[in-house]
Amino acid sequence: MRRAIALVIIVGAVLLVRDQGAGLRTAALAIGFALIAAALVGDLFEHLRLPRVSGYLIFGMVCGPYLADIISRSMARELQVVNGLAIALIAFMAGLEINFSRLKPRLVAIAQLGGATLLVLYVGLLAVFWSAWPWLPIAPEATGLARLALASVLTIVVASFSPTVTIAVLSDTRSRGPLSELTLAVVVLADLALILSFTFVMQLVHWSLGGAAAGEVGLVPRVMWEIVGSLAFGAAIGACFALYLRHVGRELTLVLLGLCVILSGLGPRLDFEPLLAALAAGLVVENIAGAGGEALSDAVERGARPVLVVFFAAAGASLHLDALAAIGGIALAVSGLRLALILGGTHLGARWARVAAEYGRLVWMGLVSQAGVTLGLTIIIASEYPTWGARIEVLLVALISIHELIGPVLFKWALARRGEIGKMDAQDEGMVGVSA
Predict the structure, then answer these.
(1) Which letter does DSSP use for residue 287 in this model?
(2) Could you say which of 38, 39, 96, 421 has the lowest number of CB atoms within 10 Å?
(3) CA 381 to CA 376: how far, in whole Å?
(4) Separation CA 106–CA 180 (nearest Å)
(5) At 129, is the pLDDT very low, low, confident or very high (cuts 50, 70, 90)?
(6) Where in the chain are the domains?
(7) Concatenated DSSP letters of 27-93
(8) Higher pLDDT residue, 192 or 216?
(9) Most confident of 131-135, 205-209, 420-424
(10) Does 95 score more than 50 pLDDT?
(11) Eight-class DSSP state of 66
Protein backbone atom coordinates (compact mmCIF):
# COMPACT_ATOMS: atom_id res chain seq x y z
CA MET A 1 0.00 0.00 0.00
CA ARG A 2 2.82 2.41 0.84
CA ARG A 3 4.45 1.75 -2.54
CA ALA A 4 1.15 2.43 -4.33
CA ILE A 5 0.71 5.72 -2.45
CA ALA A 6 4.28 6.71 -3.23
CA LEU A 7 3.70 5.93 -6.91
CA VAL A 8 0.59 8.14 -7.01
CA ILE A 9 2.51 10.99 -5.37
CA ILE A 10 5.42 10.67 -7.83
CA VAL A 11 3.10 10.61 -10.86
CA GLY A 12 1.19 13.63 -9.60
CA ALA A 13 4.37 15.56 -8.92
CA VAL A 14 5.73 14.90 -12.41
CA LEU A 15 2.44 15.92 -14.02
CA LEU A 16 2.51 19.16 -12.03
CA VAL A 17 6.14 19.93 -12.89
CA ARG A 18 5.82 18.91 -16.54
CA ASP A 19 2.85 21.20 -17.11
CA GLN A 20 4.87 24.25 -15.99
CA GLY A 21 6.42 24.49 -19.44
CA ALA A 22 8.27 22.67 -22.17
CA GLY A 23 11.60 23.85 -20.81
CA LEU A 24 11.20 21.60 -17.81
CA ARG A 25 10.86 18.47 -19.96
CA THR A 26 14.51 17.60 -19.64
CA ALA A 27 16.42 14.36 -19.67
CA ALA A 28 16.94 14.72 -15.93
CA LEU A 29 13.17 14.86 -15.33
CA ALA A 30 12.53 11.88 -17.62
CA ILE A 31 15.27 9.71 -16.12
CA GLY A 32 14.45 10.68 -12.54
CA PHE A 33 10.75 9.94 -12.98
CA ALA A 34 11.42 6.61 -14.73
CA LEU A 35 13.98 5.58 -12.14
CA ILE A 36 11.73 6.20 -9.13
CA ALA A 37 8.27 5.36 -10.48
CA ALA A 38 9.28 2.32 -12.56
CA ALA A 39 11.19 0.92 -9.58
CA LEU A 40 8.04 1.25 -7.45
CA VAL A 41 6.01 -0.54 -10.11
CA GLY A 42 8.68 -3.25 -10.20
CA ASP A 43 8.29 -3.70 -6.45
CA LEU A 44 4.53 -4.05 -6.87
CA PHE A 45 5.02 -6.70 -9.56
CA GLU A 46 7.46 -8.57 -7.36
CA HIS A 47 4.85 -8.55 -4.59
CA LEU A 48 2.43 -10.13 -7.10
CA ARG A 49 5.11 -12.76 -7.89
CA LEU A 50 5.69 -11.38 -11.39
CA PRO A 51 9.07 -10.32 -12.84
CA ARG A 52 10.24 -6.84 -11.96
CA VAL A 53 11.28 -6.20 -15.57
CA SER A 54 7.67 -6.76 -16.63
CA GLY A 55 6.71 -3.97 -14.26
CA TYR A 56 9.30 -1.62 -15.76
CA LEU A 57 8.12 -2.36 -19.30
CA ILE A 58 4.42 -2.04 -18.53
CA PHE A 59 5.09 1.17 -16.58
CA GLY A 60 6.69 2.68 -19.68
CA MET A 61 3.83 1.51 -21.90
CA VAL A 62 1.13 2.94 -19.62
CA CYS A 63 2.89 6.23 -18.90
CA GLY A 64 4.17 6.68 -22.46
CA PRO A 65 2.91 9.07 -25.13
CA TYR A 66 0.40 6.58 -26.58
CA LEU A 67 -1.59 6.12 -23.35
CA ALA A 68 -1.35 8.39 -20.30
CA ASP A 69 1.21 10.72 -21.95
CA ILE A 70 2.95 11.35 -18.64
CA ILE A 71 6.19 10.58 -20.46
CA SER A 72 5.97 12.69 -23.61
CA ARG A 73 7.57 11.79 -26.94
CA SER A 74 10.53 14.06 -26.26
CA MET A 75 10.98 12.59 -22.78
CA ALA A 76 10.83 9.07 -24.24
CA ARG A 77 13.61 9.97 -26.68
CA GLU A 78 15.71 11.39 -23.84
CA LEU A 79 15.32 8.18 -21.86
CA GLN A 80 17.03 6.28 -24.67
CA VAL A 81 20.41 7.80 -23.81
CA VAL A 82 20.99 4.74 -21.59
CA ASN A 83 20.39 2.18 -24.36
CA GLY A 84 24.02 1.61 -25.33
CA LEU A 85 25.14 1.39 -21.70
CA ALA A 86 22.34 -1.02 -20.82
CA ILE A 87 23.01 -3.32 -23.79
CA ALA A 88 26.70 -3.60 -22.89
CA LEU A 89 25.89 -4.17 -19.21
CA ILE A 90 23.39 -6.94 -20.01
CA ALA A 91 25.91 -8.74 -22.24
CA PHE A 92 28.66 -8.39 -19.61
CA MET A 93 26.35 -9.93 -17.01
CA ALA A 94 25.60 -12.81 -19.41
CA GLY A 95 29.35 -13.44 -19.74
CA LEU A 96 29.69 -13.61 -15.96
CA GLU A 97 27.08 -16.39 -15.91
CA ILE A 98 29.18 -18.76 -18.07
CA ASN A 99 31.60 -20.67 -15.84
CA PHE A 100 33.17 -23.41 -17.95
CA SER A 101 34.76 -25.36 -15.08
CA ARG A 102 31.36 -25.63 -13.42
CA LEU A 103 29.70 -26.66 -16.69
CA LYS A 104 32.38 -29.15 -17.77
CA PRO A 105 30.82 -32.39 -16.39
CA ARG A 106 27.53 -31.69 -18.22
CA LEU A 107 28.83 -29.71 -21.18
CA VAL A 108 28.21 -32.41 -23.80
CA ALA A 109 24.63 -33.05 -22.67
CA ILE A 110 23.94 -29.33 -22.43
CA ALA A 111 25.37 -28.75 -25.91
CA GLN A 112 23.27 -31.56 -27.37
CA LEU A 113 20.06 -30.38 -25.71
CA GLY A 114 20.65 -26.72 -26.53
CA GLY A 115 21.90 -27.44 -30.06
CA ALA A 116 18.88 -29.56 -30.96
CA THR A 117 16.50 -26.96 -29.54
CA LEU A 118 18.12 -24.09 -31.44
CA LEU A 119 18.28 -26.11 -34.67
CA VAL A 120 14.57 -26.90 -34.53
CA LEU A 121 13.79 -23.28 -33.68
CA TYR A 122 15.95 -21.80 -36.43
CA VAL A 123 14.82 -24.19 -39.16
CA GLY A 124 11.15 -24.06 -38.21
CA LEU A 125 10.95 -20.29 -37.78
CA LEU A 126 12.96 -19.53 -40.92
CA ALA A 127 10.81 -21.85 -43.03
CA VAL A 128 7.58 -20.25 -41.78
CA PHE A 129 8.86 -16.67 -42.04
CA TRP A 130 10.20 -17.26 -45.57
CA SER A 131 6.92 -18.78 -46.71
CA ALA A 132 4.71 -16.16 -45.03
CA TRP A 133 6.96 -13.15 -45.71
CA PRO A 134 4.63 -11.41 -48.25
CA TRP A 135 1.93 -11.34 -45.56
CA LEU A 136 4.12 -10.14 -42.68
CA PRO A 137 3.90 -6.34 -42.09
CA ILE A 138 7.68 -5.85 -42.07
CA ALA A 139 9.05 -5.56 -45.63
CA PRO A 140 6.75 -7.63 -47.85
CA GLU A 141 8.35 -6.24 -51.01
CA ALA A 142 11.72 -7.91 -50.24
CA THR A 143 12.66 -10.80 -52.52
CA GLY A 144 15.56 -13.16 -53.10
CA LEU A 145 18.62 -12.75 -50.92
CA ALA A 146 17.22 -9.66 -49.18
CA ARG A 147 14.14 -11.63 -48.16
CA LEU A 148 16.32 -14.46 -46.84
CA ALA A 149 18.48 -12.01 -44.86
CA LEU A 150 15.50 -10.20 -43.28
CA ALA A 151 13.76 -13.48 -42.45
CA SER A 152 17.02 -14.71 -40.86
CA VAL A 153 17.26 -11.61 -38.66
CA LEU A 154 13.68 -12.10 -37.50
CA THR A 155 14.36 -15.80 -36.87
CA ILE A 156 17.41 -15.12 -34.70
CA VAL A 157 15.72 -12.62 -32.40
CA VAL A 158 12.44 -14.55 -32.09
CA ALA A 159 14.40 -17.70 -31.13
CA SER A 160 16.27 -15.99 -28.28
CA PHE A 161 15.95 -16.80 -24.55
CA SER A 162 16.49 -14.76 -21.37
CA PRO A 163 19.28 -15.56 -18.87
CA THR A 164 18.28 -12.48 -16.87
CA VAL A 165 14.74 -13.72 -16.20
CA THR A 166 15.94 -17.29 -15.61
CA ILE A 167 18.39 -16.13 -12.94
CA ALA A 168 15.76 -13.85 -11.39
CA VAL A 169 13.26 -16.71 -11.04
CA LEU A 170 15.88 -19.03 -9.51
CA SER A 171 16.98 -16.35 -7.07
CA ASP A 172 13.45 -15.31 -6.08
CA THR A 173 12.33 -18.91 -5.50
CA ARG A 174 15.69 -19.98 -4.00
CA SER A 175 15.64 -22.98 -6.33
CA ARG A 176 18.45 -25.48 -6.63
CA GLY A 177 18.63 -28.83 -8.41
CA PRO A 178 19.18 -30.61 -11.75
CA LEU A 179 16.37 -28.80 -13.59
CA SER A 180 17.56 -25.40 -12.33
CA GLU A 181 21.16 -25.98 -13.40
CA LEU A 182 20.25 -27.57 -16.74
CA THR A 183 17.88 -24.75 -17.71
CA LEU A 184 20.28 -21.99 -16.70
CA ALA A 185 23.20 -23.55 -18.61
CA VAL A 186 21.16 -24.06 -21.79
CA VAL A 187 19.79 -20.51 -21.68
CA VAL A 188 23.19 -18.87 -21.17
CA LEU A 189 25.00 -20.91 -23.82
CA ALA A 190 22.12 -20.32 -26.23
CA ASP A 191 22.57 -16.60 -25.60
CA LEU A 192 26.20 -16.90 -26.69
CA ALA A 193 25.07 -18.63 -29.89
CA LEU A 194 22.46 -15.90 -30.34
CA ILE A 195 24.98 -13.07 -30.28
CA LEU A 196 27.32 -14.85 -32.71
CA SER A 197 24.43 -15.66 -35.07
CA PHE A 198 23.08 -12.13 -34.86
CA THR A 199 26.47 -10.66 -35.74
CA PHE A 200 26.63 -12.84 -38.86
CA VAL A 201 23.08 -12.25 -40.10
CA MET A 202 23.33 -8.48 -39.63
CA GLN A 203 26.37 -8.48 -41.90
CA LEU A 204 24.36 -10.59 -44.36
CA VAL A 205 21.67 -7.90 -44.26
CA HIS A 206 24.22 -5.13 -44.88
CA TRP A 207 25.63 -7.05 -47.83
CA SER A 208 22.30 -8.14 -49.36
CA LEU A 209 20.81 -4.63 -49.16
CA GLY A 210 23.87 -3.07 -50.77
CA GLY A 211 24.95 -1.06 -47.73
CA ALA A 212 28.32 0.49 -47.02
CA ALA A 213 29.68 -2.84 -45.82
CA ALA A 214 29.20 -4.36 -49.24
CA GLY A 215 31.12 -1.61 -51.00
CA GLU A 216 34.03 -1.45 -48.58
CA VAL A 217 34.90 -5.07 -47.95
CA GLY A 218 33.52 -8.55 -48.60
CA LEU A 219 31.02 -10.24 -46.34
CA VAL A 220 33.32 -12.93 -44.92
CA PRO A 221 36.29 -10.62 -44.07
CA ARG A 222 33.96 -8.12 -42.43
CA VAL A 223 32.21 -10.80 -40.36
CA MET A 224 35.59 -12.17 -39.27
CA TRP A 225 36.78 -8.68 -38.32
CA GLU A 226 33.63 -7.96 -36.37
CA ILE A 227 33.50 -11.30 -34.54
CA VAL A 228 37.21 -11.88 -33.87
CA GLY A 229 37.93 -8.20 -33.34
CA SER A 230 35.00 -7.78 -30.97
CA LEU A 231 36.09 -10.81 -28.94
CA ALA A 232 39.68 -9.58 -28.75
CA PHE A 233 38.63 -6.03 -27.86
CA GLY A 234 36.26 -7.25 -25.15
CA ALA A 235 38.81 -9.71 -23.79
CA ALA A 236 41.39 -6.92 -23.47
CA ILE A 237 38.91 -4.68 -21.65
CA GLY A 238 37.90 -7.60 -19.41
CA ALA A 239 41.55 -8.36 -18.58
CA CYS A 240 42.14 -4.73 -17.58
CA PHE A 241 39.04 -4.83 -15.39
CA ALA A 242 40.19 -8.09 -13.80
CA LEU A 243 43.57 -6.52 -12.97
CA TYR A 244 41.76 -3.59 -11.38
CA LEU A 245 39.64 -6.01 -9.32
CA ARG A 246 42.72 -7.83 -8.04
CA HIS A 247 44.99 -4.89 -7.27
CA VAL A 248 42.65 -1.99 -6.50
CA GLY A 249 39.09 -3.24 -6.01
CA ARG A 250 37.55 0.09 -5.07
CA GLU A 251 34.48 1.90 -6.46
CA LEU A 252 33.64 -1.21 -8.49
CA THR A 253 30.18 -0.04 -9.49
CA LEU A 254 31.49 3.19 -10.98
CA VAL A 255 34.36 1.42 -12.76
CA LEU A 256 31.99 -1.27 -14.08
CA LEU A 257 29.68 1.34 -15.59
CA GLY A 258 32.72 3.11 -17.06
CA LEU A 259 33.80 -0.17 -18.65
CA CYS A 260 30.36 -0.55 -20.25
CA VAL A 261 30.53 3.03 -21.53
CA ILE A 262 33.85 2.23 -23.23
CA LEU A 263 32.47 -0.97 -24.75
CA SER A 264 29.32 0.72 -26.04
CA GLY A 265 30.98 3.96 -27.14
CA LEU A 266 34.40 2.99 -28.52
CA GLY A 267 33.47 -0.41 -29.95
CA PRO A 268 31.15 0.79 -32.75
CA ARG A 269 33.75 3.35 -33.88
CA LEU A 270 36.13 0.45 -34.53
CA ASP A 271 33.37 -1.59 -36.22
CA PHE A 272 33.18 -3.93 -33.24
CA GLU A 273 29.91 -5.36 -31.91
CA PRO A 274 29.34 -4.03 -28.35
CA LEU A 275 27.24 -7.05 -27.36
CA LEU A 276 29.95 -9.49 -28.40
CA ALA A 277 32.74 -7.43 -26.86
CA ALA A 278 30.90 -7.08 -23.54
CA LEU A 279 30.16 -10.80 -23.48
CA ALA A 280 33.87 -11.56 -24.04
CA ALA A 281 34.81 -9.18 -21.22
CA GLY A 282 32.48 -11.01 -18.84
CA LEU A 283 33.84 -14.40 -19.92
CA VAL A 284 37.43 -13.31 -19.26
CA VAL A 285 36.61 -11.94 -15.83
CA GLU A 286 34.71 -15.09 -14.81
CA ASN A 287 36.75 -17.89 -16.39
CA ILE A 288 40.29 -16.76 -17.18
CA ALA A 289 41.10 -14.06 -14.68
CA GLY A 290 39.13 -15.69 -11.87
CA ALA A 291 38.46 -12.23 -10.54
CA GLY A 292 34.80 -12.68 -9.67
CA GLY A 293 33.42 -12.84 -6.19
CA GLU A 294 31.05 -11.23 -3.76
CA ALA A 295 32.39 -7.71 -4.33
CA LEU A 296 31.84 -7.99 -8.08
CA SER A 297 28.35 -9.45 -7.57
CA ASP A 298 27.43 -6.50 -5.36
CA ALA A 299 28.83 -4.03 -7.91
CA VAL A 300 26.86 -5.63 -10.73
CA GLU A 301 23.67 -5.59 -8.69
CA ARG A 302 24.08 -1.94 -7.67
CA GLY A 303 25.04 -0.83 -11.17
CA ALA A 304 22.53 -2.88 -13.11
CA ARG A 305 19.33 -2.07 -11.23
CA PRO A 306 19.01 1.67 -12.06
CA VAL A 307 20.28 1.22 -15.64
CA LEU A 308 17.87 -1.61 -16.39
CA VAL A 309 14.95 0.24 -14.77
CA VAL A 310 15.42 3.18 -17.15
CA PHE A 311 16.21 0.88 -20.09
CA PHE A 312 13.00 -1.14 -19.85
CA ALA A 313 10.90 1.91 -18.99
CA ALA A 314 12.27 3.69 -22.07
CA ALA A 315 11.51 0.66 -24.22
CA GLY A 316 7.92 0.59 -23.01
CA ALA A 317 7.46 4.35 -23.45
CA SER A 318 8.88 4.21 -26.99
CA LEU A 319 6.56 1.41 -28.08
CA HIS A 320 4.15 2.48 -30.84
CA LEU A 321 0.96 1.08 -29.38
CA ASP A 322 -1.05 1.95 -32.49
CA ALA A 323 1.18 -0.37 -34.48
CA LEU A 324 1.09 -2.92 -31.65
CA ALA A 325 -2.71 -3.05 -31.85
CA ALA A 326 -2.49 -3.84 -35.55
CA ILE A 327 0.17 -6.54 -35.11
CA GLY A 328 -1.18 -8.19 -31.95
CA GLY A 329 -2.76 -11.13 -33.78
CA ILE A 330 0.49 -11.86 -35.62
CA ALA A 331 2.41 -11.67 -32.34
CA LEU A 332 0.13 -14.28 -30.77
CA ALA A 333 0.54 -16.55 -33.79
CA VAL A 334 4.34 -16.21 -33.73
CA SER A 335 4.36 -16.82 -29.97
CA GLY A 336 2.37 -20.02 -30.40
CA LEU A 337 4.73 -21.20 -33.16
CA ARG A 338 7.77 -20.44 -30.99
CA LEU A 339 6.37 -22.35 -28.01
CA ALA A 340 5.55 -25.38 -30.17
CA LEU A 341 9.05 -25.43 -31.66
CA ILE A 342 10.69 -25.06 -28.22
CA LEU A 343 8.62 -27.97 -26.94
CA GLY A 344 9.53 -30.14 -29.93
CA GLY A 345 13.20 -29.13 -29.90
CA THR A 346 13.72 -29.84 -26.19
CA HIS A 347 11.95 -33.20 -26.55
CA LEU A 348 14.32 -34.26 -29.34
CA GLY A 349 17.35 -32.75 -27.58
CA ALA A 350 16.58 -34.45 -24.27
CA ARG A 351 16.32 -37.84 -25.99
CA TRP A 352 19.58 -37.26 -27.88
CA ALA A 353 21.41 -36.14 -24.73
CA ARG A 354 19.80 -38.92 -22.67
CA VAL A 355 18.47 -36.46 -20.11
CA ALA A 356 16.21 -38.06 -17.51
CA ALA A 357 12.60 -37.97 -18.68
CA GLU A 358 11.35 -36.13 -15.58
CA TYR A 359 13.62 -33.19 -16.48
CA GLY A 360 13.42 -33.46 -20.27
CA ARG A 361 9.65 -33.00 -20.15
CA LEU A 362 9.89 -29.78 -18.12
CA VAL A 363 13.00 -27.96 -19.34
CA TRP A 364 11.09 -26.20 -22.14
CA MET A 365 9.18 -24.18 -19.55
CA GLY A 366 12.41 -22.44 -18.55
CA LEU A 367 13.07 -21.35 -22.16
CA VAL A 368 9.91 -19.34 -22.77
CA SER A 369 10.94 -15.94 -21.32
CA GLN A 370 12.57 -13.22 -23.39
CA ALA A 371 14.04 -9.98 -22.08
CA GLY A 372 17.19 -7.89 -22.03
CA VAL A 373 19.42 -9.16 -24.85
CA THR A 374 16.44 -9.71 -27.15
CA LEU A 375 15.25 -6.16 -26.58
CA GLY A 376 18.79 -4.88 -27.07
CA LEU A 377 19.05 -6.63 -30.43
CA THR A 378 15.74 -5.19 -31.62
CA ILE A 379 16.92 -1.69 -30.69
CA ILE A 380 20.09 -2.23 -32.73
CA ILE A 381 18.00 -3.35 -35.73
CA ALA A 382 15.61 -0.42 -35.42
CA SER A 383 18.42 2.13 -35.09
CA GLU A 384 20.27 0.85 -38.16
CA TYR A 385 17.14 0.35 -40.30
CA PRO A 386 14.41 2.75 -39.10
CA THR A 387 11.78 1.51 -41.60
CA TRP A 388 11.48 -2.28 -41.48
CA GLY A 389 13.64 -2.43 -38.32
CA ALA A 390 11.05 -0.44 -36.39
CA ARG A 391 8.35 -2.90 -37.48
CA ILE A 392 10.44 -5.81 -36.23
CA GLU A 393 10.90 -3.91 -32.95
CA VAL A 394 7.14 -3.57 -32.51
CA LEU A 395 6.62 -7.29 -33.12
CA LEU A 396 9.45 -8.29 -30.78
CA VAL A 397 8.33 -6.01 -27.95
CA ALA A 398 4.87 -7.57 -28.25
CA LEU A 399 6.43 -11.04 -28.06
CA ILE A 400 8.60 -10.03 -25.10
CA SER A 401 5.55 -8.71 -23.27
CA ILE A 402 3.71 -12.00 -23.82
CA HIS A 403 6.65 -14.19 -22.86
CA GLU A 404 7.61 -12.06 -19.86
CA LEU A 405 4.19 -12.67 -18.36
CA ILE A 406 3.82 -16.40 -19.05
CA GLY A 407 7.48 -17.54 -19.00
CA PRO A 408 8.31 -17.02 -15.30
CA VAL A 409 4.98 -18.56 -14.27
CA LEU A 410 5.67 -21.70 -16.33
CA PHE A 411 9.25 -21.98 -15.07
CA LYS A 412 8.22 -21.59 -11.44
CA TRP A 413 5.56 -24.28 -11.89
CA ALA A 414 8.17 -26.64 -13.38
CA LEU A 415 10.56 -26.01 -10.46
CA ALA A 416 7.75 -26.69 -7.98
CA ARG A 417 6.86 -29.87 -9.86
CA ARG A 418 10.43 -31.16 -9.34
CA GLY A 419 10.55 -29.97 -5.73
CA GLU A 420 13.52 -27.64 -6.29
CA ILE A 421 12.01 -24.46 -4.83
CA GLY A 422 13.58 -23.38 -1.55
CA LYS A 423 16.59 -25.71 -1.89
CA MET A 424 19.20 -22.95 -2.28
CA ASP A 425 21.32 -22.10 0.74
CA ALA A 426 23.16 -18.81 1.21
CA GLN A 427 26.32 -20.02 -0.50
CA ASP A 428 24.43 -21.37 -3.50
CA GLU A 429 22.55 -18.12 -3.89
CA GLY A 430 25.80 -16.26 -4.37
CA MET A 431 26.93 -18.80 -6.97
CA VAL A 432 23.77 -18.39 -9.01
CA GLY A 433 24.42 -14.70 -9.14
CA VAL A 434 27.85 -15.02 -10.75
CA SER A 435 28.05 -18.38 -12.54
CA ALA A 436 26.08 -20.75 -14.68
Answers:
(1) I
(2) 421
(3) 9
(4) 13
(5) very high
(6) 2-80, 82-434
(7) HHHHHHHHHHHHHHHHHHHHHTTS-HHHHHHHHHHHHSTTTT-SS-HHHHHHHGGGHHHHHHHHHHH
(8) 192
(9) 131-135
(10) yes
(11) T
